[in-house]
Fold each of these.
Amino acid sequence: FGICQGCPIQSAADEDKFLLVCKDGPVFNSKEVIL
């Protein structure tokens, strides 16, 4: 039910913000995250 907190990825729009990205979860535009 979506409680995984294991993959924080830095936001490209706000470098102080991190987004939770999961291969089985939300899909992000590649321009929105710094990999």
Amino acid sequence: MAEEATATRKIKCSQCGAPLDVPRGADYITCPFCGSTIEIKKEIYQGEFWAKPVFDKAAATERFFRWTAERDKPARFNERVVLKSVIPVWVPTWHIKEWKASEGGARDIAFSIQPGFAEKKTYEALSPQNLPLETIKPLEGPLDGEMAKPDMEPAEKINFLKSRGQDVQELSLVYVPLYRVEYSYKGKDYSLLIEGMTGGVHAKDYPRKPGWPYYLYTLAFGILFLLLSLPLFSEDTVDLGMALLCMGAIISLPVSAVIAYLIIKNV
């Protein structure tokens, strides 16, 4: 969790003015220059962090091609798809520590994660997730790829949470990794998102295996057998009807196999 990640912040000694590095979470620090003991004023905003991806760019690319081979895709989709780009995208999330009332009137510290990205329609499928502590690093500069814009500034977020009655103790902004995959199929462009921590794929619009060939196939054979069974409705042609049905069944088996094969391979 971001709030436990190792980091420092800089302050000035209140006695001699010397610059000091203060570990996160420290209540007091002794100035090495003048020996003064300084009480550290607790800051709510803990800073920016980033989560090291479990899936790197190569693994995300491999995950994409596994997705293209899943059953709901058109035949040979994984062979016909053209991969255009795999772009790292960093999406901000708010990690919040706050006091909450518990049973018996006591208060406990609660931890929660909220989406922090402004482009809600773009990333609305993503759900906040607990991140392994070892993956959280202090953000020291721009990350490789695109960084999505936070929905508000930290001070604004703190005021917003407090206006809702939340007793916020700590707030961190953690950027989690995604990959935006752009590809084309039969001349049309598509895109999807792959989560860098879980490998989850989020795709709204993508080519799906069409169902019409199966319905057409079923309808055609239904009509055929209906026509072949018409002689059964007359006593004079019952034998003919039975013969036609048997012949139709015998012929339909290999024909069905061929048609099914062609549908699976070419649709």
Amino acid sequence: MLTASDLGTLTAQRNENELVKQELDVCGQEASEGSDSVVYKLVGPVLIKNDLDEAKETVDKRLEFISGEIKKMESTIAKKEEQSQQLAMTVQEMQGAMQKAAVEAAKAAAMQSS
């Protein structure tokens, strides 16, 4: 079942990846100015040298995936909220009908006893 914390986790991951993308853009600018920028990626307990363009592509794909998951989750949450509202209306209608029936039953009982 989806929870608000799941949405929060995805949002935090998206924010983190956006920061990584910004840092990679800075590295790209430094590399174009002639500065030596090296990017590493963590594979298990080891840091491995990674191509800057490949790192940018990986982060872009990850951001795309996370954004898609957030959209799906928001859509699911909206559907569940709509279903919840419909159920609440149904319950209110049933309660109203029960109260009306109880009033009528009380009136009928009062008429029989008099």
